[in-house]
Amino acid sequence: MIIHGFNKTTLLDYPGKLACSVFTGNCNFRCVFCQNSSLVLEPEKEPTISDREVLEHIKKRKHILQGVCVSGGEPTLDPGLREFLTAIKETGLPVKLDTNGYEPETLRALINDGLIDMVAMDIKSDLDGYAEIAGLDRFDPERIKESAKLLMESGIEYEFRTTVVKEYFTVKTAHGIGEWLKGAKALYLQDFRDSDGVMVPGLHGFEGEKLIQFRDILRQYIEKVEIRGTDAG
Fold first, then answer.
1. Taking the domains of the chain in order of start, what are their residue ranges?
2. CB-based burial of residue 193 (10 Å sphere; 0-12 exposed, 13-18 middle, 19+ buried)?
3. What is the pLDDT of residues 105-159, one digit of tens each?
4. What pLDDT shows up at residue 183?
5. Per-residue pLDDT at 10 exceeds 70
6. In whole angstroms, how far apart are CA 219 and each of 34, 76, 89, 107, 174?
7. Which end of the chain is more exposed for a tag (fewer CB within 10 A), N or C?
């Protein structure tokens, strides 16, 4: 597997666990608010870390670490993902996968084969606004819907998460997401923060009260909705 980043210790990426995080390159989306645009647009120019080196570190720390998070980019595009996850599972550590959900068959196979224990799937928008935010001229919403449905019925731990951007997120968006994912266990709202690596510069986040409004709308449909990365609510 081609690894472009490795965070040896984190309390943020795998909820409730002391974990390490691995970052792959490449993505099949071009999301306007993507914070890792260099990994998406020009991964070949980013430094790499040997997957063997990463696995050796994980094996040495397996009695301290409580899990491994594999993120990106989009990990499901890497042909070496299955082999890498198999090696991690051999250490006895649980695995969390971060994904955009656009490769439902890959996701299904990883779940069925017991190679992942938790999935965090990004929900970019309601289905009407998905293509614009994902930056795709050709977008198949059925692939996203299939992955979301798969997670909700899989029995494994999962969460949905949505980055909230003032230029794209409205009350209508919140209701649309809620109606689509009605009955889901958990969705986390993440307020957008601008940075040098954003795909499209000049976007804005919301003030706290607006985030609380969106949270309360979504709670009409989804069991647990919380706000991450802010003091709001």
1. 3-228
2. middle
3. 999 999 999 999 999 999 999 999 999 999 999 999 999 999 999 999 999 999 9
4. 96
5. yes
6. 26, 30, 35, 27, 10
7. C
192-219 pLDDT, tens digit each = 988 888 888 899 999 779 999 999 999 9
Q: Is the bond into 135 cis (omega within 30 degrees of 0)?
A: no
Torsion 79-81-82-87 (CA) sign = positive
Show the tokens assigned to 142. Answer: 């059925």
pLDDT band at 33 (very low <50, low <70, confident <90, very high): very high
Distance in angstroms (rounded) separating the CA atoms of residues 139 and 144: 10
Are the CB atoms for 146 and 104 separated by under 8 Å? yes
> What DSSP character marks residue 85?
H
Q: Which of 139, 54, 152 is nearest to 107 (CA)?
A: 152
The CATH class, in words, for 3-228 is alpha beta
Cα–Cα distance measured from residue 62 to residue 155, given in angstroms and rounded to the nearest whole number: 25
